[in-house]
Design a protein that fits this description.
Elements lengths: L6 E3 L2 E3 L6 E5 L6 E6 L3 H18 L4 H19 E4 L2 E4 L4 E3 H16 L10 H10 L10 E3 L4 E3 L6 H16 L2 H15 L16 H10 L6 H23 L26 H19 L4 H21 L30 H37 L6
Antiparallel strand pairs: 1-2, 3-4, 5-6, 7-8, 8-9
Helix pairs in contact: 3-4, 3-5, 4-5, 5-6, 5-7, 6-7, 6-8, 7-8, 7-9, 8-9, 8-10, 9-10, 9-11
């Protein structure tokens, strides 16, 4: 039975301040299986106050001590969230689990192993990858839910999960080299950019495809077979079109009263959120790098590069460096964080994660592009000295 879920605030489980709850439905049967607490303004205020106190402690912890804490966090997921889904291992908490949790857990475990933070996590990767593969349909789509009581998958789809699984399986292949993981990742990507996009209105509307395009960039260099090369090339075209669609939703100077040049939104009176700029920049940089490796001309990549520069500049303008840190109980504790928007001062870890990841990706991409340009110039100079220049 699904347990009734409370709020976790300041290290303790508690009911919402007003006692409100929401029903939880079993996706396999649509029957109620429990409740969860509905957070209100008072609960958010308590959570933000607790987060401020926690960050004040965290920012003073050394990198070595943080690595120990991250290992403990991974160990908690390994020891308490790894379940049996039939004969395979998955990640979840209840009788009904989703592939998104397993995909993100697999991404975390592959990184812990790849970076040598704890190489023992490599042993967990094959089991989780096998579960994701078992949830894949013949057309490449994944069944997003598994009912542990009925011991069967449930063929429903939710936002993000197939893209997350494609990236997780790609990382598993990079780490261990199992060709089944590469094949499953490629088939998931192929479905996302072909069959999964064939719906009424698909020529006029795009969804949140950042996981799709990050997976495309991750798979690009390992597409060796003709079918794989077609998949990643089609995915590159798909991601370039998605980025172009995003440019139509991008605010320019003076489009709104907010400082929104480089943000994405739907009108002059709605405050643009910062997180989409971070996640779309992550995916856009992966697309830009793949386009450069594919040798696409500046006429195709130039608009994307300018789009990314505007978004990253907007994110840097809104980062608390220091910004209006005086609005917080401990101004020093929040420096470097990312708010939800210009008027939403909630500070969540995923806000900083998307922006931080985009900034690191951009620096890596620019360093690689600069190195490639320097190598090209040196080669041209050697050719010129060797007799008459390039033919």
């Amino acid at each position: 039975m699904y347990e009734n879920v409370s709020l976790f605030i300041d290290g303790a489980w508690c009911a919402s301040a007003d006692g409100r709850t929401l029903e939880v439905l079993n996706p396999a049967t649509s029957e109620p299986i429990g409740t969860l607490a509905h957070a209100g303004r008072a609960d958010l205020d308590r959570a933000l106050e607790a987060a401020d106190k926690g960050f004040a402690v965290w920012r003073k912890i050394s990198a070595y001590e943080r690595s120990k804490i991250m290992r403990r966090a991974a160990a908690l997921m390994r020891d308490h969230a790894m379940l049996w889904c039939g004969e395979l291992r998955c990640i979840g908490e209840r009788d009904v689990v989703d592939v998104g949790s397993t995909a993100l857990g697999l991404l975390a475990f592959t990184e812990v192993a790849r970076t040598k933070l704890d190489p023992s996590y490599e042993q967990l990767v094959p089991a989780l990858a096998a579960f994701l593969r078992s949830q894949q349909r013949p057309d490449g789509e994944l069944m997003h839910v598994y009912d542990r009581t009925a011991r069967r998958p449930v063929d429903v789809q939710m936002l993000y999960y197939t893209g997350e699984a494609a990236l997780a399986l790609s990382h598993a292949h990079t780490l261990l080299g199992d060709p089944r993981d590469l094949d499953a990742s490629m088939r998931a990507l192929d479905h996302l950019v072909h069959h999964g996009w064939s719906f009424f209105g698909s020529r006029y509307y795009w969804g949140e495809e950042h996981w799709t395009c990050i997976a495309m960039g991750d798979l690009w260099e390992r597409a060796r077979e003709p079918a794989q090369r077609r998949t990643v090339r089609d995915a590159l075209d798909f991601c370039l079109d998605w980025a172009a669609y995003g440019r139509q939703l991008m605010y320019g100077p003076g489009d709104t009263a907010f400082d929104a040049d480089g943000a994405y939104g739907f009108g002059p009176v709605v405050t643009p959120r910062l997180t989409p700029a971070g996640s779309r920049s992550e995916a856009g940089i992966a697309t830009l790098e793949a386009g450069r490796r594919a040798g696409l001309p500046a006429s195709r990549l130039g608009p994307l590069e300018q789009q990314l520069r505007r978004s990253l500049a907007m994110l840097l303008r809104h980062q608390l460096r220091p910004g209006p840190v005086h609005l917080f109980a401990d101004p020093g504790a929040v420096e470097g964080a990312m708010p939800g928007s210009e008027v939403d001062w909630a500070l969540r870890i995923d806000y900083a994660q998307h922006t931080g990841s985009a900034l690191v990706r951009w620096l890596d991409a620019e360093a690689a592009n600069g190195a490639n340009a320097a190598n090209g110039a040196n080669a041209a100079a050697r050719s010129t000295r060797g007799g008459g220049g390039p033919q």
